[in-house]
Amino acid sequence: MQHTDQLSPAQAMLAVILEHDNIVIAAHGSPDGDAIGATGAMAYLLKQLGKTIALYNATGIPEYLEWVPLPGRVYTKPSQLPFRPGLIIALDCGDVWRLGKEMNAVFADYPSISIDHHLSNPLFASLGNWVDPHMAATGQMVAAVADAANIPLTGELAQCVYLSLVSDTGSFTHGNTSAAVFELAARLVAGGLDAAAIREKLDNQWSLPKTRLWGKLLQELRIECDGEVALCSVTLDEIASFGAVREDLEGFAEQMRRIKKVRVAVLIRQDPGNRYKLSMRSSGQDDVRTVAARFGGGGHLNAAGATIDSSDMQGVIMQTLEAVRSISLKPVESL
Ligand code: AMP
Ligand code: MN
Ligand code: MN
């Protein structure tokens, strides 16, 4: 590829895309709103560029995001893909393994680019990596690629970008809610986006099992470290006993973080196969990414996670508390 030195990162990504076809758009497994939003936004963008595309996610679309408009089905195994990939675009994927075991195994066999905003991204794609931790959401970066291609941010593409922004900024409340985020959101609304309709689809959809499960966990959560840490653990059996699903815990760590005085909220969720999923939320300078990194995980300053192999919930709780203490929460005055 020539002349990429003079191009903006978004233009450089577009240049690679324009040179390829039969493009697989993939995001991290157990996807959140940014992963699915970025996938959808990229899909609508590439369709407008006349590309043949396939969408990929190792764990498919979670129920709470089933309403998101996507042009075509989501494949969950590389062997199912309708064509040999000419290019794989990895989105919102801080590391290649987060694409899932099967995609990870074949990823290096095909040309690839990566668009992501995780600080620890090891730049795993072969033809280009645009990794910018200052971006609030990967969907924001896809919107910049659309701008570079002169594709308008309207219709389903706009809905997907908006989903990304809302998801990764905590509905425009986290520290990453920059002027650029508000400007992009304003452009989407100016282009006809119905923000209230998306909020309705995202928020007012709680199942009764989810509501009851949250009620129980809110009763049971522990407060540690002089009130500065909230911690909650949940087993698969507990989730199942309510008729709830694991995705129903999405947002629970944020909810604990809302407790007055709490600076770090920790959710430890059992996953199938002797594993625990650690989810942490903080605010200000309390850096939960370094805590997650201790367990081989990652994320962002104020939102991070890890997967821990263990069959001992108490052990995981103790290890996690110890790790959270080690980031030595500073007195608020000195922040
Ligand atoms: P979650 O708590 O699952 O919503 O994740 C919060 C943030 O941490 C997201 O930005 C994720 O990309 C990141 N994250 C979650 N789990 C992992 C993991 N196992 N490894 C690396 N990063 C993770
Ligand atoms: Mn994500
Ligand atoms: Mn993201």
Describe the structure.
There is one protein chain. By secondary structure, the protein is α/β, with parallel strands linked by helices. It folds into two domains: 4-202, inorganic pyrophosphatase (n-terminal core), CATH 3.90.1640; 208-325, Roll (Diaminopimelate Epimerase, Chain A, domain 1). The protein is 37% helix and 17% strand. Helix 2 packs parallel to helix 4, helix 2 packs antiparallel against helix 5 (155-168) and helix 4 (138-148) packs antiparallel against helix 5 (155-168). The termini are far apart. The protein binds adenosine monophosphate and manganese (II) ion (2 copies). Adenosine monophosphate binds at residues 32, 94, 279, 297-300, 303-307.
Task: Write a concise synopsis of the structure shown.
The protein is α/β, with parallel strands linked by helices.
- What ligand molecules are bound, each kind once? adenosine monophosphate, manganese (II) ion
Q: What is the number of domains?
A: 2
Largest sheet geometry: 6 strands, parallel
Number of helices: 12
Taking Cα atoms only, what radius of gyration do you get, to the nearest Å?
20 Å
